[in-house]
Amino acid sequence: MNIEPVPGGPGTVAPRAPEPLSRRSRASALLTLAVRHPAVVPTGAVVLAVLIGAAIVLAAGLNPISAYSAVLAGALDLENLDYTFSVWALICGMALAAAIPLRMGEFNLGGNGQMVLGGLAAAFIAGQLDLPSILLIPLAVVAAGVVAGAFGAISAPLSTRYGIPIIISTLLLSPVAVAIVSYLLRFQLGEAGSAVAQTERFPDSAHMWALGSLSYSNMGLILIIVLMALFWLVDSRSAVGFELRVIGANRRFASYGGVRVGRLAFGAMAASGAVAGVVGAIIVLSPPYRLVDGALLSPGYTFAGLAAALLAGGRPAFVPLTAALFTILQVGGGGMERSADVPRQLSDVLQGVVIIVLALRTIVDSRRTGRSATS
Amino acid sequence: MNVFEWGFVAAVLLAATPILYSSLAGALSSQVGVFNIALEGQMLWGAFAAVAGSFYTGSAWAGVLIAVVTTALFSVTLAVGSARWGADPIVIAIGTNLFALGITGFLMRVLFDVSGTFSPRGLQGLDKMSFLAEIPVLGPVFAGQTALVPLAFVFIVVIGLWLKLTPSGLRLRGVGEHPEAASSLGIKVASYQMWVTIAGGALCGIAGAQLSLGNVTVFTENMTAGRGWIAVAAVMLVMGRPLWLPVACLGFGAAEALGFRLQGIGAPQQLTDAAPYAITIAVLVGMRMWVTARNRRPSLSAQPVPLPSQPESTS
């Protein structure tokens, strides 16, 4: 069930020729190193997926070049860039929530539940407390992180004590949280007399601070960038980050080497859930400044983020880039539909194809190393 | 609201059937050691293929056949990728679920030029077993159902007994139980995994067809709406043992049917939405605690550790 969390990570690159190299073999060694560069696999997967997507568009009797250029134009048009960045922040956040457990070889499939609980906590603070903005917004975001983090952390003891894998417990707990929040919105916290299950509009003091005159991107974008930077720092510069990757590489070895697996898993799942919760808070504290039933889940940020994290192999340096790719697909899909008359569902198709191609990279590995991949 | 009426039993069966087929697929996969979370996407594809097949051929059963065949083909990626090439079935499944969601919506636009819902005039749904209508108990329960509903139980019993009682079933279970041991007895582990996963795809095709041509006669975007995940929960709840699936699936089906009725009278439906998942996680934790407690007992009473038995001669 564990994926290789660090393709081409420490230990896999082995220049194993100590004798002086001829020019030719040195060139091939360099080539091997270049091919083994961690960016090669995701790039190759994206290129292949783009080609497969083009084939699908062609087969449908449409023009792939105009489809792709419409995607790029739709997402990267100067007028849309503000909106694109706001979506990027959310997908990047969910990618981060997926990437943290991925570092220890675990999947967090419960992003939906964690995000919605975070949104609920933020909405509760924003709607109930009468505080100045400078206190209210940080309090709402922190509350979201704490609630969602605690919820995410449940999966760690369930795994280490009860032997229920994290992927299964997150998968099962998430719909429960979604249902609870939906229930509360419809019957307890919802705005009276509204046909839609939603909270009342929050007071102005609970509106996430704007970034200059931008209408979509707000301080949430900065917050996500800070969290990304923090993840990069912890992952590459701290013992905790190293130990997390050791767990991913070999759990029993990590345990033998003195890594406290249970504790670290708890911390990682708490951090993962907290980030998802913060994403929920950012959505809720942005227009329309309400918690609306189902509105957090319908754009599919969780699985877009998961896909981005998988494509990045959980590497902090790659996550913003892969998240940007999936953001462009998601935001540009609408533009493609309008200007090139290609259904926007092509975006989902491409997301899926990228992940399938990425997963099937093992076909290359098994050919190259000549080992049989059968278990 | 009367729960104890035949109409409610019929509603439970209707809700349970797609989950029965798809969870059987998941249970078979889990028996050969493949964690299959691609059920949602495969069922969605099956639902689309069934409607498209019925639309083009004018026959609902041809639609079912097309759904079965194409969904089996759809699952080849997962089957071959995970069994032959050692790819991670979870990652492939995440990819194929996204792909299924996208491609069904895409094809609906390209082929039929509609978005959201596809229900052309004259689309053939599966025949109901109305010849049963006169019979006392069977009538109200089964007369409004398709033949796929009772067939699900036949499938489950036959496959469950096959796994339990036959040599080939034993081999299949051995593949999941201990791949190395199975392999050392000459069982082709990868082949078993591959073909079982493809057969699971065919079952998900039936599940989808029942959903789009049996329960209703329409295809809507993302119409599986989490049923594949409920099937995954059912598989975990029964620990992959097919013969227990009816219990889990009828329970989950009852939750769904009850949810519909609650929604009808304005009561919270969310409770029944969450029930399958909450029950599954509670049972998993509870069983684990029970097993731990049971294992602790002998050591407390300081029983002698039994000597390792003689190695059994394997035929």
Radius of gyration of chain B: 21 Å
Number of helices of chain B: 13
Total number of beta strands of chain B: 2
Shape of chain A: globular
- What is the CATH architecture assignment of chain B? Orthogonal Bundle
> Unreliable stretches of chain A, pLDDT < 50, 5 or more residues?
1-14, 370-375
Percent of sequence in beta strands of chain A: under 5%
How do the helices and strands follow one another from N- to C-terminus of chain B? Answer: HHHHHEHHHHHEHHH
Overall, the morphology of chain B is: globular
CATH topology of chain B: ABC transporter involved in vitamin B12 uptake, BtuC
SS class of chain B: mainly alpha
Helical segment count of chain A: 16
Question: How large a portion of the residues of chain B is in β-strands, by DSSP E?
Answer: under 5%
Please give the order of strands in the largest beta sheet of chain B.
1-2
What does this structure look like?
The complex is a heterodimer of chains A (375) and B (315). Chain A contains 16 helices and no strands. Chain A has 375 residues and is mostly helical. Chain A has a domain of 231 residues. In chain A, helix 4 packs antiparallel against helix 12 and helix 4 packs across helix 13. The longest helix of chain A is centred in the C-terminal third of the chain and has 24 residues. Chain A is globular, with a radius of gyration of 22 Å. The N and C termini of chain A lie close together (12 Å). The N terminus and C terminus of chain A are likely disordered. Chain B has one domain: Orthogonal Bundle (ABC transporter involved in vitamin B12 uptake, BtuC). The termini of chain B are far apart. Chain B has a two-stranded antiparallel sheet with strand order 1-2. Chain B has 315 residues and is an all-alpha fold. The longest helix of chain B is centred in the last third of the chain and has 31 residues. The C terminus of chain B is likely disordered. Chain B: This is Nucleoside ABC transporter membrane protein.
